[in-house]
Amino acid sequence: MKLFRRLIESRFWVLSVKEISQILRNKQLIFLLVFPPTIQLLIFGFALNPDVQHLKLGITDYSNTPMSRELISALTANEVFEVKSATLDEQALGEQVRRGQITAGLVIPPNFNRLLKSDQPAEVQVLIDAVDANTAGIANGYMSQIINQFSRQFTPDVVPPIQTQATILYNPGLVSSWFIVPGVIGLVLNLGSSLVSTAAVVREKDTGTLEQLLMTPAAAWEIILAKVVPLFILLLGEVILALSVATFIFRVPFRGNIFLYLFFAGLYACVGIGIGFLLATVCRTQQQAILTSFFINLPLIQLSGAIAPVESMPKFFQIFSLANPLRHFVTISRGVLLKGNGLDVLYPEALALLGFAIVLLTISTNKFRTQLS
Q1: Residues 38, 215: contact at Cβ < 8 Å?
Q2: Which residues pair with 106 in a beta bridge?
Q3: In whole angstroms, what is the distance from residue 156 CA to residue 373 CA?
Q4: What kind and span of H or E run contains 80?
Q5: Which domains are present in the chain?
Q6: Which pTM value belongs to this model?
Q7: Which one of 129, 220, 317, 373 is separated from 229 by 20 to 30 angstroms, measured CA to CA?
Q8: Long-range CB contacts (< 8 A, 24+ apart) of 143-152?
């Protein structure tokens, strides 16, 4: 109780209440937080259908014969598939699919060569990551077509001797919105956090209340923290709203831990707030801030994989997108929602987000503190 009473009587609490009351009085800001995210989710979820160009292939070749190697060469000859891994452990191949390291896995049985030479049908198993339903459909179609064409060279007039047994993982119905919607949640959080935090600071400059804050007996860190905390809470509310739309309207499954997802969303909210504060310190008006934010946000969105797979981009942009915090959050969003992944799988993305959040918040708050001084 004493700690709570001290919090209530602190200058930080007074500044936070002032910031919350300002936000609640700003009807445009409330509208920006609630209405556009819902519309964006609905439009993107129903309308977008991404295309792909490159597919990562993993191989488990128990046969290891010239015939099996010819089949692998046929799959990669037209560059539809690129072999990214080769292992003799089928479970390891499935784990690579779960981690998103490969799009499809091919398991060739040990008796593959013997069955083909004796004119008996040989069955190969295909594992497909169907988080991206469009990619999964393309991968399955290409795989079946190439294997059938390869089979024709043995018995061109009869049923192909090589038969595929495809296992569609994580999205058995190949629903495109299951790929789009988790990415759009990241898109919405990115726009909401950066735009709202930019507007909150620039509004202080426009109305002249920034000078009034300088006259208060509060320290610079109290002023900054009082601005960050209410925005952070509002953005988590926006994430919960977006998850509700995804779950109840698009029937996107939630296979992971809700608290882990909110933790990751909180990390990215800090990244977005850092971007917004940084823009606010270099922009003088709200119009200038909004135009600048779209100049920053559009490349972040286009290189994030939220709308189109990163694998379909040129190699340079695939590498360059690693410096994009939104790409890491989109990977986390799909991994937690559709695959039920935890920190054991997503820790590289979590560390990247943590690093972006620390760097951006440190730079932006230092520049903001300099302006306050």
Answers
A1: no
A2: 59, 126
A3: 81
A4: none
A5: 9-49+176-372 (no CATH), 55-169 (3.40.1710.10)
A6: 0.69
A7: 373
A8: 143/75, 143/81, 143/104, 143/106, 146/74, 146/75, 146/78, 146/80, 147/71, 147/74, 147/75, 149/74, 150/70, 150/71, 150/74
User: Over the stretch 287-329, which tens digit does the pLDDT of each residue have?
Assistant: 677 777 777 887 888 888 887 778 777 777 888 889 999 999 9
* Closest alpha carbon to 236 in 196, 200, 206, 277: 196
Report the C-alpha gap between 58 and 366 in whole angstroms: 47
Given the structure tokens 């609490």, which residue do they identify? Answer: 13
Helices (H) and strands (E) in the chain, counts: 15, 5
Burial of 27 (C-beta count, 10 Å sphere; 0-12/13-18/19+): exposed
User: Which two tokens mark 271?
Assistant: 């990244």
Q: What is the CA radius of gyration of the chain?
A: 26
